[in-house]
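Let's practice the habit of predicting before peeking. Look at the sequence and jot down your guess about where helices and strands might fall. Then scroll down.
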Amino acid sequence: MTTENSLRKRDSSKKSWAEPWKVKMVEPTRWTTRQYRAERIQEAGFNTFLLKSEDVYIDLLTDSGTSAMSDYQWAGLMLGDEAYAGSRNFYHLEANIQKFYGYKYIVPTHQGRGAEHLVSQIYIKKGDVVPGNMYFTTTRIHQELAGGSFEDVIVDEAHDPQSERPFKGDVDLGKLEDLIKGVGRDRIPYVSLAATVNMAGGQPVSMQNVRELRALCDGYGVPVLLDATRAIENAYFIQQREEGYRDKKVADILLEFCSYTHGSWMSAKKDSLVNIGGWLALNDWNKFEEARNLVVVYEGLHTYGGLAGRDMEAMARGIEESVDDGHIRARVGQVEYLGGKLLDWEVPIVLPIGGHAVFLDAKRFYPHIPQDRFPAQTLAAQIYIEAGVRTMERGILSAGRDPETGRHRYPKLELVRVAIPRRVYTQAHMDVTAEAIEEVFWNRDRAKGLKLVYEPKYLRFFQARLEPV
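Done guessing? Here is the structure:
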């Protein structure tokens, strides 16, 4: 007879888990030689954005538009209503955004930056200052082109890759209030809140912080606008890390979080599990009217916003799937699995591990390479050469130049983002990726850095070309 004491005890936190989906179709990938990859990255100017997809073995450049759609979403494509005006797919999308995000008025756009453009044109006037919890590349350029400037008001810990503060995406309310008082309320069009914060390493914002942020902004009459691109991942971190939310569903947490904001823009290519699409959602009817009018100028009619009906249907269905607790647990779990392996091998990464990517700390990876020799870009190129794994630089190259002085911006964080598409790769792919990064780490002394040989005027990291120093 088995007694309780004789049972083998297991640590439940160490149990294996499997993705909550099974493979129905595959897309072949191609393994290449190291020499071949070295030639390809040289042809691409040591910029991973300029590599051809067919030359990449595991593509972790971005989680934007690269996720796998479900059979439910693919079936929805066949129900696309391609009417120019009044597509029924728009009304399904509108209803699901209202249901799961809680906003009143919806304007579809072709992707997130289309919505960023509308927000900037509607809210910003020349000389305005837009506070936010760390910049994002496309968001900031739209703010600048509209005549504004961005001011970082994130907590200091966000700039420290080794800080383990659980909510490093929080707004520093003291910094924000000092800014409002310093420049004047009339020059603050809105607060730009990102959840999670991509450039900080996928770091979340706490419910307490957004609640207090809303109260502060209400006192000054300043709207809070949310970049909801990865807000579902943010809701998951609140569930896991913030007191009082452990027993709540991610969908309910998301709805509460959004309720503290006045509006939102969204790149649906991330959380919503589609390859293209976005939206702008507002609670202010007058601002919505402006957006609905402008979208016709820049994107398309207000009931399609640059999208096919089938794309809107896939997005509507993706929203339903994205808030499922099992889905988001496995999605973030795969990122944590990769990050955990790298930590075991003492590879320097940003802590805590983010929701959509593992971020390698290039300053600690290559302490001998000065920042103006692009250590993160160097690291991304070396990872590709090692195993055909494509990643992205998030450092000085992404930060660009100051529009006033023309000099490099020097961000405190010099990172390589290893972004994991949703429902695409297996744990075996994560093992290959981790082993490749470890190999590059152990040969880090050989790297010498890169220098720019071409850069475009805007968002240079997409098209810049470099060569070895």
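How did you do? The two ends are 72 Å apart (CA to CA).
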